[in-house]
Amino acid sequence: VNNLVLKVQILAIAFAAHFSGMAIEITMSSSVGELTQQDFLNRQAQKCMELVASTYKSRTSASPIHLNFYAADNKGETFQNRQALYNIGKKFSYRSFDMNGSQPVDWSLETNCRSISQLKPYYMLSAHESLFSDESSVILMTLVSNTHVSSDVLATGVGEYLSEKGVSQVVFEYPGYGGSLGPTDAQQVVRSSVAAIQFLKQQFPNKKIFLLGHSIGAGFAYETAARAGDLIDGVMTYGGIMSVYKQSEDQKGFGPKWLTKAYIWLASKKGEILDFENVLEKIVAKNPKLPFLILHGEADMSVPVRHSVDIKSSIRATVKSKLSIKLQKNFTVHTIPGAGHEEVHFPADKERFFQVWDQYFRFMATTYAN
User: Fold this and answer.
1) Residue 72's beta-bridge partner residues?
2) β partners of residue 69
3) Rounded CA gap, 170 and 108, in Å?
4) Looking at the domain assignment, is residue 39 inside a domain?
5) Quick one: which of 213, 342, 205 has its CA closest to 279?
6) Contact 165/196 with Cβ under 8 angstroms?
7) I need a labelling partner for 92 at 20 to 30 A (CA). Which of 257, 259, 317, 342 fits?
8) Is 57 helix (H, G, I), strand (E, B) or coil?
9) Inside any domain, residue 357
10) Which one, of 174, 173, 61, lies nearest residue 120 by Cα?
11) Would you give per-residue pLDDT tens digits along the chain (370 residues)?
12) How many C-beta neighbours within 10 Å does residue 76 have?
């Protein structure tokens, strides 16, 4: 082993940091002769991850955006697992940018992670490789449900399907989820998603940007729309939770009574947890013409369809009369017979999957034309 020259290269584990105002991508590279490197690489990656977790203290919202690209191999299989990336590195483009769009400097390390206590949190975007293609005219940033991370969505192959339609899928990884560092709270998620929108718009100023919020991601999409203003061109949701309080009431039989009561109480406090009704006037103020397409499966057992069906009545009850009329025209609500909670990402039920996406494509095309 002493004769081996260790230069461990981990293309998939990258940490963005601010040193002297510059975002830095930390990588490790190595060649270990003919020996299998997988276990060694995994151990080094784990050491880095543990070090990052132990030294992370900052709650700043002005943090770098890490952009990870993915593609499918010739079998149509999407490699979303980071450990697979350095096995097939030539099939992937892999870049990282800070929030201002400048490409960071590579920092080569030896076989261990040096102290990186200055590390700031970063928020990961996973993008289909078509993002840089001229054939792509639309960016669809997806805000996933509470039970998913970006790798779940990337593994379905939906990104390949969208790219054929001229749409580049970008999946936003919530702070504290999956490979993304940072505090996990609703307002931090929204601040980070707005920063991601700003980053994408700066990098691709000529492309339309749409949001797709699934389940709890719908609430984040509404809050993001309320803050991002005219940087986005439309918002789409599927199986969206319009009120965490109402959802808590719907699900209260599934958890301990003491915990459920506390959660419902917290959800009833305005501003504590995202609530659709609390952002309506902010949406109107920021972008009064922003169009919304709300889809919901009628057989959704996770989030009852009433969350979407009741949207316009919520608008009438919440927003001042003149604004209410204007805002109602911006919202289109459709329900999908027989569809459940996951059809937007998982094409197991192809008929309903295509029903959902056909409506999304028509919505984006109409908005783009206008």
Assistant:
1) 78
2) 127
3) 28
4) no
5) 213
6) no
7) 342
8) coil
9) yes
10) 61
11) 333 333 333 333 333 333 333 333 333 333 333 334 445 544 545 555 554 444 444 434 444 555 665 554 433 343 333 333 333 232 333 333 333 333 332 222 222 233 332 334 456 777 777 787 788 899 999 998 777 777 677 767 788 888 889 999 888 888 777 666 666 677 778 888 888 898 888 888 999 999 999 988 888 899 899 999 899 999 999 988 876 545 445 544 444 454 445 444 444 444 444 555 667 777 877 887 899 999 998 988 888 888 888 877 777 776 666 666 767 778 899 999 998 888 887 777 788 889 999 999 999 999 887 7
12) 8
Q: What is the rounded CA–CA span in Å between residue 175 and residue 286?
A: 25
Residue 227's alpha-carbon distances to 284, 336, 363, in angstroms, are 11, 30, 22
Q: Is residue 91 part of a domain?
A: yes
Beta strands in 81-239 (DSSP E): 105-109, 123-128, 138-143, 167-172, 208-214, 234-238
Residue with tokens 């700066």: 202
Do residues 263 and 285 lie in contact, with contact meaning Cβ atoms separated by under 8 Å?
no
Amino acid at 138: V
> Which residues, other chains included, contact 94 with Cβ-Cβ below 8 Å and sequence gap of 6+?
11, 12, 14, 68, 69, 85
DSSP 174: P
Domain count, the chain: 1
The domain that contains 254 carries what CATH number?
A: 3.40.50.1820
Q: How many CA atoms lie within 13 A of 223 on its CB side?
A: 26
Rg (CA), the chain: 22
Other CB atoms within 10 A of residue 310 CB: 17
Hey, which residues does 168 pair with through a beta bridge?
Answer: 139
Q: Collect all residues with Cβ–Cβ distance below 8 Å to 35 and sequence separation of at least 6.
A: 4
CB 111 within 8 A of CB 6: yes
Residue 18 host element (H or E) = strand 15-19
Range of the domain at 349: 60-106+121-369
Predicted TM-score (pTM) of this structure: 0.68
Cα 60 to Cα 188: distance, rounded to the nearest angstrom = 9
